[in-house]
Design goal:
two-stranded antiparallel sheet; about 5% strand; about 60% helix; about 120 residues; mainly alpha; Arc Repressor Mutant
Length: about 120
């Protein structure tokens, strides 16, 4: 369902990299946390396409890890009418929404409490 190569917006990517600098958590792991935080907050992708211009282009298995099946099922459940490219847009929108709540944590213990 999701394409094999995926990326995010440059802004989101920068926030993930800053979070790595503060906490040591890699961008792919923090992207997974951000995605599910966004889903839990009841954010929904409105179909607005954004330019996914980040330079960190990873395969979906690196981005999603062991959560790949669950992530794809959640996207399919919430957005059954979307195609593969649009599902990537929805995933990126959820990561962007979720990272907003956790991007400013500078200490790993604070970060874990916020989750």
């Amino acid at each position: 369902m999701l394409p094999n190569r995926m990326n995010l917006t440059r802004t989101t990517e920068d926030q993930l990299k800053k979070l790595k600098g503060y906490t040591g958590i890699t961008p792919n792991v923090s992207a997974r946390l951000a995605f599910f935080r966004s889903v839990e907050s009841e954010f929904r992708y409105n179909g607005q396409e954004t330019k996914l211009d980040g330079s960190l282009i990873l395969d979906k298995f690196t981005w999603l890890g062991e959560t790949s099946d669950v992530t794809e099922l959640v996207l399919k459940m919430y957005y059954p009418e979307l195609d593969s490219k649009q599902h990537q847009q929805a995933w990126a929108a959820h990561v962007e929404d979720g990272i907003a709540a956790i991007r400013n944590h500078r200490i790993l213990s604070q970060f874990s409490i916020a989750l």
